[in-house]
Known about the structure:
The chain has 503 residues and is of the alpha/beta class. It is built from 16 helices and 18 strands. The radius of gyration is 24 Å and the shape is elongated. The two termini are 33 Å apart. Residues 270, 273, 291, 352-353 line the site of one zinc ion.
Amino acid sequence: MAFNLLNKDIDTLTCPALVVFSKSPSQKDKLAKVTHNELNKQLVDSISEKTITGKHQEAITFREFNISGYRHLIVVGLGKENEITHESVRQSVASALEAIKALNVKEAALHFDGITVSKKDAASFAKAVAEGLVLTSYVFDELKSTTKAKKAEDELNVHVVTKMAADKAVKAAFHEGSVLANVVNFSRRLGDMPGNLMTPTILADSAVAAAKGITNLKVTVWDKARIKKEKMGGLLGVAAGSDQEPRFIIMEYKGAAASKKPVCFVGKGLTFDCGGISIKPGAGMEEMKYDMCGGANVIGTLLAIAQLKLKVNAVGLVASTENLINGSATKPGDVHTARNGKTFEVNNTDAEGRLILADALSYATELAPQVICDAATLTGAMVVALGNTHTGYFTRNTALKSKIEKAAVQSGEWVWNMPLTDFHVKDMKGVYADLSNISAGKGAGSATAAAFLEQFVGEEIPWAHFDIAGTGWAVGNRLPYAPKKGASGAMIRTFVEVAKQYV
Ligand code: BES
Ligand code: ZN
Ligand code: ZN
């Protein structure tokens, strides 16, 4: 599938399918309105009979409508004019794309100028349209032997038609939305690949391959011997139970003067988490292939920052391993030493994410960055607390908190600030070592995990931890542009917005 901005008048184009939009009646109007005057007249019966209501995401296809240069017509609802937002538009164009796909055409035109409320909003809506279309186009079917039916879809070309396509800001915004959504799709694929086909080695190789040809982006991968040399005892302790070698992935983007401190992103890249000796129940365990989504999304974040050529220095760090049970696996009670010298008792081998992040955060601290944001599918407790709409984040830094809230408004992703206090830190004190990897108390499982991570971050560095356990995959049918079951790419767009604030 391909999407492009087309500088044309919708009335002078020839294309097999046309998508126009309709708006729900406002208080003063009784009926919906289609965003194209001529069609508004032609569809008067459907409008007055209320088969076209303009309701958000409503998609009505008129096959063989044969109007001017168009064979088929699709009318997609935007909702009430004063309720149109970037997010509602991402969702509306998702409905539009599904309706286009059902027509089995190779080309379609989308009437962009019918969406925008005013000229000044055109750029930001162009970004939302690009995001909505590209995000919706994602399918993960490469492991099926029969993908023939997909061919028509693959060849589909959607033109986003607007008289403003020559406008620099509109063009740049459409490009930005496309880059972001393509990167999200790239990271979704990494997450959707099963554990046998997405090992730590493959994850690292994928980062290297994706960065190839992108200016000012360098990827370094540490193997097990190097990880040992670098004293990453947490990552090694978890990897001890696996026949697959761990990897530590370092992505460095230089977009500003060398003297400028980087912004740093850290990800949990657990390519399969069976829990280790504290083994997980069998039901649903296959979903633990997604335990590397934090890592995949950090890789995506760096790819996006570099492709958008942001004027920042940025570093992405991904600690990657499996958590399995061979004869050398870490046992409950074992003590390991993290890179920063702190020791911890592993009282539950299933609380492994925090152990590998301990080393990654210690290393991040050594880079003296302006900020560290980490993403991890860290705790089941986060799923219980917030479900799959909001990503819970933890920070004690109020300035960073404001930056994150602003970033999330810009990106359209939902975040929720969670508590992190000295009470939670106290719960993670060890008996035989500095720390225990599970809490002495009951409840607040996500906050105590965050408190554990905090022990590995330099006190002077603004840091936030994003627990994407609930939002990393399987967001249900809540978002029409995200797979019902499958990796979501959560926080990539928000992290890019955070990075922009350090330009
Ligand atoms: N990867 C899991 C967290 C997880 C669970 C993510 C369910 C998404 C859905 C993590 O490694 C884990 O198992 N955490 C334990 C920690 C506990 C033993 C303190 C958990 O949440 O149960
Ligand atoms: Zn686990
Ligand atoms: Zn895990």
